Amino acid sequence: MDSEALDTSAPAKEATPRRLTLRKGEKLRHRTLVDSLFTKGESLYEFPFRVNFRLLSREELENSFRSSPPSPIDPIQMLITVPKKKRRRAVDRVLMRRRIREAYRLNRLPLKDLVESMPGGNTLCMAFIYIHDKNNDFSLIDRKMKSLLRKVADKIWQE
User: Fold this and answer.
1) What domain count does the chain have?
2) Domain that residue 104 falls in
3) What percent of the chain has pLDDT over 90?
4) For residue 18, is it within any domain?
5) If you average pLDDT over each of 3-7, 47-51, 114-118, which comes out highest?
6) Residue from 49, 80, 75 nearest 145 by CA
7) Which residues are CB-contacts of 123 (< 8 A; sequence separation ≥ 6)?
8) 86 within some domain
9) Which stretch of DSSP H or E encloses residue 97?
């Protein structure tokens, strides 16, 4: 056995890594938030994506609902759409949604940390729209997602 594994007096080398799972609270699903995202939000392009995003303060979030906001709302919420007009076959739409979701899941933590560090308890709502008419491989999707999330972070940091 490894003697280091048995030594309990040695300090831990690193904290436990953060889990990369997407929880229910990170999925944008409330109609009022989606409608306000597309009417009042900003838009950025990074081909083959367009992202609409809106940074909501705690007051704006509470005013979006009749009583109080539902409990599982995380600091970052997202939705993915692949238009039927661009990708006619359902198999292709599902494939691209899965690739986009995986790229987002792997690269969202720096943006999440930025939003959580901002004062005022903000919530960032985002909608990723796939605007290309062909399927792309995961490496391109991942690279473009990193670039797009960096652009969104720069944009909300300026505000």
Assistant:
1) 1
2) 25-150
3) 51
4) no
5) 47-51
6) 49
7) 55, 56, 58, 61, 73, 74, 75, 76, 77, 115
8) yes
9) helix 90-107
